[in-house]
Specification:
Blueprint (H helix, E strand, L loop, with lengths): L5 E3 L2 H12 L4 E6 L5 H13 L2 E6 L19 H10 L4 E3 L3 H4 L19 H4 L3 H16 L3 E5 L3 H13 L5 E5 L19 H7 L1 H14 L4 H14 L3 E9 L14 E9 L2 E8 L1
Parallel strand pairs: 1-4, 2-3, 2-5, 3-4, 5-6
Antiparallel strand pairs: 7-8, 8-9
């Protein structure tokens, strides 16, 4: 039976544990909000290739949820998560509660710009990247990793965090990990637990349409026309679409032609009460 990783939940214990791990070499951090699935485990595997020791944080961050979002109902199962992390060979789990991360009197927030202000997730969740930037800055400061691994499913978030680390001169390399998908193409997400079996089949439309649009744009089809037709197809199966956009892979600026690239296609929409995001490279 795999050895369960050590779990710490206060900052002094974390710093002692990290100091011990560092004696063996480089440390990688995988930040998560728990409810772990195969996509998260793929991040752990990548982290193990990049460092000698792996730390996983589990913290459902309230500051990135708006009042009308699913903070209270977000899936949580620490015991199950720890079992999965044991199988993956994780060395340490940082599992603070809200009072540890945001103690009484906490008054400092990071307000990111650049890739956080490009009219994608920020248009629909204006609170989101401030909450993400603040908690990630805390996690990187607390855990002092050499490498931190984030999934490409949250592509705009990945760009925001990379910019954060660069702008604040944080001594950490931010690494993006490829999206892991279910058999039907649906990007793995903790929020997929909210979907019914029928909705899971419908949700796979996002990936299928994205790949079709990417193929057509790569073959020099008119970008705006492709996106209009892709949007109509996604909405025809029952999604309420927030956006389907073609953006530059680094700056996230809007692109109009293939020559403006390299291009990433990004999509977000609601199916019933569940909001899903996805993206693919062109």
């Amino acid at each position: 039976m795999p050895r369960r990783p050590r779990v710490v939940s206060d900052v002094p214990a974390l710093r002692r544990a990290v100091a011990t791990l560092r004696r063996d070499g480089r440390i990688a951090l995988v930040p998560t909000m728990g409810a772990l699935h195969d996509g998260h485990i793929s991040l752990v595997r990548l982290a193990r290739r990049r460092a000698k020791r792996v730390v996983v944080s589990i913290f459902v961050n309230p500051t990135q949820f708006a009042p009308n979002e699913d903070f209270s109902s977000y899936p949580r199962n620490l015991s199950k998560d720890l079992a999965r992390l044991a199988e993956a060979g994780v060395d340490l789990v940082w599992a603070p509660d809200v009072k540890v991360m945001y103690p009484d009197g906490f008054a400092t927030r990071i307000t990111p710009e650049g890739p956080a202000k490009v009219g994608l997730e920020d248009s629909f969740r204006p609170h989101f990247f401030g909450g993400v930037a603040t908690v990630v800055a805390k996690l990187l400061t607390q855990c002092t990793p050499d490498v931190a691994v984030f999934g490409e499913k949250d592509y705009q978030q990945l760009k925001v965090i990379a910019r954060l680390a660069t702008d604040l001169d944080l001594p950490v390399k931010i690494v993006g990990a490829p999206i892991v998908r279910e058999a039907n193409g649906l990007a793995m997400s903790s929020r997929n637990a909210y979907l019914s079996e029928a909705q899971r089949g419908v949700a796979a439309t996002l990936c299928r349409v994205l790949k079709d649009c990417a193929h057509r744009i790569a073959n020099k089809a008119h970008v705006a026309r492709v996106l209009d037709e892709g949007s109509a197809e996604i909405e025809s199966v029952g999604f309420t679409l927030d956006y389907l956009e073609a953006r530059h892979v680094d700056s996230l600026a809007k692109v109009e032609t293939l020559k403006d690239g390299p291009i990433r296609l990004l999509v977000a929409g609601r199916l019933g009460t569940t909001r899903l995001i996805d993206n693919v490279a062109v």
